[in-house]
Design goal:
The complex is a heterodimer of chains A (63) and B (318). Chain A is of the alpha+beta class and 63 residues long. Helix content of chain A is 19%, strand content 16%. The C terminus of chain A is likely disordered. Classes of the chains: A alpha+beta (63), B alpha+beta (318). The interface between A and B is large, with 41 and 57 residues. Strand 1 of chain A pairs antiparallel with strand 10 of chain B. Chain A: InterPro entries: GRASP_targ, Rbsml_synth_pep_Strp.
Chain lengths: 63, 318
């Protein structure tokens, strides 16, 4: 029997996100293609959604 | 003295704190336990009546004698990136890494033992009651009759998951859902169900706590919106003051739970009451800071870099 709670799962569209930054091991920060830290572009961070509540819950259960 | 951040390389929320630590001039090492063994190296020795240990990754080296604090942010499982990963290798690596870090007695945000306990929703509700929060009636049960009686008593009831969506299927979500009348609760016998009285809300509240600094944000709820995490609306997060009663309860909760960081979720009803929904010991804060400009990353960096009385002896967690 399927657990009751699982009757309420919904399909989730998997985001196709190409993160426009990469990790710089020496800076210990993600950087954009032009070398600026990714955190310098707040609009970008909001757009890619990697800091939102549900972003965390997909891999960890701490929203 | 160095701040250690345990997280993945892709974690840009951690970047926000690393940037603040750099601004403060506080040394930092960022390490993903998934990279041990391999990219990251550890060594600890217990000899001559003392203990010392070292971590190194990407050319950065950290001695346990110079470890100020640990932020457990989004760490991978130990050894997950190893050439030949296994459950046994993960267990061995967890023993080596966390055993070494516990021996160094740093300040923890949050201590893994306290974090494990704090993730349990039934326990959260109990601590929330003790702390003076308003908590909606809730039941966890594997008894269909109990679930049926709860729904009959409270009429409007939501079902939610205690642990999140199934981790092995990234293509599904499990939002909090209002269940309608005439539901067959028979399947409750197949797995614990978490049912809660629905709180009609006019807004979602996110209260982010960093030590004794509290940041509240409010987002209006759309008509009929049950789970604020799902469904795009025209509303955005806005900074709001923290009521004194909520401050007292939140600090009491953190103390009882042994947490240095937590993100609370509340539903604000039409009378302005903040109903406790849950407390995420490792909750995200980037989305709040980006929309409200509340200095949460700075507060985390200040807490982690704060100079504390030095103690080489292991301390109890309580």
């Amino acid at each position: 029997m399927r657990p009751f709670t699982l009757n309420y799962v919904r399909p989730r569209a998997l985001p196709i996100v190409v993160e426009p930054y990469s990790f710089d091991a020496s800076l210990q920060l993600n950087v954009l293609g032009d070398g600026r830290p990714a955190v310098a572009d707040r609009d970008l961070l909001l757009a890619v959604g990697t800091t939102t509540s549900t972003a965390g819950s997909q891999t960890h259960f701490d929203d | 003295m160095t701040v250690l951040i345990l997280t993945s390389e892709q974690d840009v929320t951690a970047d926000m704190v690393v940037a603040e630590l750099n601004r403060l001039g506080a040394p930092v090492m960022r390490l993903d336990p998934a990279d041990i063994p391999g990219k990251a190296v550890l060594s600890a020795d217990y000899a001559h009546g003392d203990f010392d240990g070292h971590l190194s990754v990407n050319g950065h080296v950290l001695s346990m004698g110079g470890l100020r604090s640990v932020w457990v942010r989004r760490p991978g499982d130990p050894a997950a990136h190893a050439a030949q990963p296994s459950a046994w290798l993960t267990a061995e690596t967890r023993q080596a890494l966390y055993g070494m870090l516990y021996s160094a007695s740093p300040a923890w945000m949050n201590h893994p033992g306290n974090a494990d306990q704090a993730r349990h929703k039934p326990w959260q509700l109990r601590v929330a009651h003790f702390s003076g929060f308003a908590v909606p009636p809730t039941v966890f049960t594997t008894a269909p009759r109990v679930a049926e009686q709860f729904a009959e008593l409270h009429r409007d009831v939501v079902v939610k998951s205690a642990s999140g969506p199934p981790p092995d299927d990234p293509a599904v979500a499990l939002p909090t859902t209002l269940i309608g009348p005439g539901i067959d609760f028979g399947a409750v016998a197949a797995g614990p169900a978490l049912l809660q009285r629905y709180v009609p809300k006019r807004a979602d509240i996110r209260l982010t706590c960093v030590g004794d600094r509290l940041f509240a944000a409010r987002k209006r709820a759309a008509p009929g919106q049950i789970d604020g995490r799902y469904g795009d609306t025209e509303y955005v997060w806005e900074a709001v003051p923290v009521p004194d009663r909520i401050t007292t309860s939140a600090l009491e909760y953190l103390s009882l739970a042994g947490l240095a960081y937590a993100a609370f979720d509340f539903a604000e009803d039409d009378e302005g009451v903040w109903w406790f929904l849950e407390c995420n010991q490792g909750g995200q804060f980037g989305f709040v800071e980006l929309e409200t400009e509340q200095p949460i990353a700075e507060a985390v960096a200040l807490w982690l870099s704060w100079r504390r009385p030095e103690s080489r002896a292991p301390k109890p967690r309580w």
